[in-house]
Specification:
Order of helices and strands: HEEHHEHEHEE
Largest sheet: 3 strands, mixed
Helix content: 40-55%
Oligomer: single chain
CATH topology of the largest domain: GMP Synthetase, Chain A, domain 3
Shape: globular
CATH architecture of the largest domain: 2-Layer Sandwich
């Protein structure tokens, strides 16, 4: 690997991947700090690496500021995540799978969705019929798919964005 090329990953290069993900987190944090400054909003940036992606969170004491950044049903959060991914892409040249959370919104949503997936799996097991859920974002569908798999069933996504939904399949 040439020096300064953080996008090259060698076989078994978990240290290289970690360095790349840490770099994504640093770029994202700088971008988000600039955005918070421009908008004159309060918030601190936390960074982590979860699995194979950088995870960045905006936390703080001002619920009003954080709620404004989350928006209705997380719409502003989703937009900020995409803008942050674009900022990372602009700096690295690589597509980012960075995950952004604001004020614990995604963490709470993940818990709710895992429960929804487990309930849908139980319903599909009990009735023997497929269970179709309401349309969801890709993040939401992933959490539900994982919960259904943990319950021992299969699920699939159907439809086109923005109406794409999870269907839980019986055994």
């Amino acid at each position: 690997m040439t020096e300064g090329n953080s996008t090259t990953v060698t076989d078994g290069g978990s240290a290289d991947r970690l360095t790349r993900l840490e770099q994504e987190g640093e770029i994202a944090a700088d971008y988000l700090e600039g955005l918070l400054d421009i908008a004159d909003l309060d918030g601190d940036i936390d960074m982590d690496v979860e699995g194979e992606r950088a995870a960045v969170s905006i936390v703080g004491d001002s619920a009003r500021d954080l709620n404004m950044l989350v928006g209705r049903d997380g719409e502003v959060l989703e937009a900020l995540q995409e803008l942050t991914r674009l900022a990372v892409h602009r700096e690295t040249g690589d597509r980012s799978r960075l995950m952004l959370d604001i004020g614990g919104f995604r963490a709470r949503k993940r818990t709710e969705l895992a429960l929804l997936g487990a309930k849908a799996a139980a319903e599909a097991k009990g009735t023997g019929q497929p269970v179709k859920l309401d349309p969801m974002t890709p993040f939401e569908r992933k959490v539900v798919h994982d919960a259904v798999a943990a319950a021992g069933l299969r699920s699939e996504s159907e439809g086109e964005e923005p109406e794409r939904r999870v269907v839980v399949l019986p055994v």
